[in-house]
Amino acid sequence: ESTRELAETRERVYDEVFGECSNVYHEMIPLIPHVDVYLYQPTPDRDFFTYVTGGMSDLPMSAPPDAGSHVRRSEIVFYTAEDRPEYAELLRRLAHFPHDNKTWLHWGHTMPNGNPPEPILGYPNLDTLLFMPSILAPDSKLGKRLLWQGEAIQLLWLVPITTAECNLKLQQGVGALYDVFDAIDHPTVFFGDRRSYV
Questions:
Q1: Across-strand partners of 161?
Q2: What is the pLDDT, as a whole number, of residue 37?
């Protein structure tokens, strides 16, 4: 199917939500879906770097039928204090994961970095990835502004976590981990390695 119309609409909405795009990490290998990663520089209103995928939502993920159509199309967003090209490659790899493995990613899902989990991008304490709904505005309302074939495209906020935090989520539910984040006042912006909250 042709997704040029979606790509053009997505870029327009991204510029409205995130500001002016400063760089696009184009995917050079012809994969399906084609996933680029967009970088937005800090602004007075958003004093951090924003990385977001573009292309993951071109195809629906293999979500269970009873999960609803609102979980079938997503893009991944990452807020960070520094600009590292490795972040773009991480997001691109994650965007391909559900399509390559006939699965799905949504809010509350976790993904260990290997088995056993290994540090993410050299950060010793962080070895697992958590996907959350964005708590920023207007990012959290993207699904109301960006649709494709009648399905909302949601943002999955990427949050690196520790094994202990992942175990808490698996044992007590993602709500228990959210409560810990609230108590600690976990920052929206990623600043690098940190101690475990658990």
A1: 128
A2: 98
